[in-house]
Write a structure and sequence with these properties.
With 130 residues, the chain is mostly beta strands. It is built from 1 helix and 9 strands, in the order E-E-E-E-E-E-H-E-E-E. Strand 4 and strand 5 form a beta hairpin.
Length: 130
């Protein structure tokens, strides 16, 4: 059985806003083929990458209000990996920094369970761990 001792969280400075229930990243690394008069496909030009993602968070307490405020103000936040140590979740490593919300889609109120809110975001800085 899996050992579930890590999770993704939304951080604003040193403050954890909320854990992330679902995270779906999308990478886009466009290339344009270069042709010449003498030959096709002589090379390519790599264009800037974009990194977007959607995240689902529990719509409890002030979580959705905090993230909506970040979206309206254009403030940046970070996605971090938190590792459970004992009965606490401690900061372990930062992977996605300078993230901004581009759109929000709160869910309906549900009778059982926790309502979820979806946010579409982009990251301006992405760290890669080997």
């Amino acid at each position: 059985m899996a050992d579930w001792n890590t999770r993704l969280e939304v951080k604003l400075g040193d403050r954890t806003i909320t854990p992330i229930t679902n995270f779906t990243p999308t990478f886009n690394v466009p290339h344009t083929v270069v042709h010449s008069l003498e030959q096709d496909n002589t090379g390519y030009v790599r264009q800037p990458f974009t990194f977007t993602f959607t995240m689902t968070v529990p719509a409890i307490a002030a979580t959705v209000a905090d993230l909506t405020e970040l979206a309206i103000s254009g403030a940046e936040f970070a996605i971090t990996v938190a590792e459970k140590r004992g009965t606490d979740w401690a900061f372990n490593a930062m992977k996605f920094a300078r993230c901004v919300v581009t759109s929000a889609s709160p869910s309906n109120v549900v009778i059982d369970g926790v309502p979820q809110a979806n946010f579409t975001c982009m990251a301006l800085t992405v760290g890669v761990e080997e």
